[in-house]
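To the team - adenosine-5'-[phenylalaninyl-phosphate] complex, inputs and output below.
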Amino acid sequence: MTDITSRTEAALAAIGAATSLDALEAERLETLGKKGWVSLALKTLGGMSPEERTAAAPAIQSARAAIAEALDAKKAALEAAALEEQLARETVDLTLPAPAAPKGSVHPVSQVMDELAEIFADLGFAVATGPEIEDDWHNFTALNMDETHPARAMHDTFYFPDKTAEGKDVLLRTHTSPVQIRAMLAEGAPIRIIAPGRVYRSDSDATHTPMFHQVEGLVIDRDIHLGHLKWTLETFFKAFFEREDITLRLRPSYFPFTEPSVEVDVGYSNEGGRRVVGGHGDAPGHAWMELGGSGMVNARVLEFAGLDPTEWQGFAFGLGIDRIAMLKYGMNDLRAFFDGDGRWLAHYGFSPFDQPTLSAGVGARA
Ligand code: FA5
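Output:
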């Protein structure tokens, strides 16, 4: 009895003196834990006679109740103190200046791709895509460049060492034209699409980079002729450069997948070392700049794509997106587009809020 009373007093004193939750837990194990002395004392009750039990039980049970209550109270007090201390430690000093807002910008190429899609969507074109890792059938053969065609060598192609399961060569697409084939095979005719995306050629100087961007255009319908092509390109470039005095020159050229083929040049002038688009390229102080290739889709290409050339015809074009971005936003070296230099991006990049729309203007600067 005395033993229980003194041990209880000692336990209550220890609980009162505990300064951490760990110390309190040690005290709980010592008393109420499975092997704690209170628990062991409670177990002895089972072996007693009813009289002995009636005499011994109240002291043990009240010791247990007193210790349990003291443990709970001390635990709550220690937790409250820990919370207070944490709150005091983690106060936010509202007088500090706000951290700098993270700065990111939309790359001019992404911005120009959005501008293109906006303008062509208004002309009724859908956006199509194709894989950047292509096979030589889509990239060359179906575009009327069989294995021995010299144009294949002119494309400076990056090939993969392995072939497809059907034995086709695998390559990084050298132009967006294979998307013409994929779109015609998937959708048939009539069709009106643009296909913007990355293309790859082993080529590098101020106006050529090994990876660059093109936008393909394809219109297949009945009774389509070169006049439709010229009107479409002129309408696009006027909207894109946001000026009416755009003069295009269609120069006879050769592409295996178009017949006839024309290269598209635009007139520009040099103002203070900057190329400014507009005007007739033969006028004084002006010159022509090549923007891309185009032409009427070759009948053989239509056949490769499963269309009957006596029923369907159309035009296609492929423009260098990076080149038209340079011309619109006044950059002079294409390689800087892909250097990932934060200062260049801060200067030429666009705010993510500057969404091109026809109503607000597709050329608004950030
Ligand atoms: C083609 O790639 C054809 N597929 C275009 C075409 C499509 C013609 C449909 C007819 C019908 P070309 O190799 O000329 O053509 O490239 C088209 C444009 O891509 C060029 O005028 C130029 O603006 C751009 N370009 C070509 N090579 C590079 C390069 N290494 N870096 C940046 N731009 C390039």
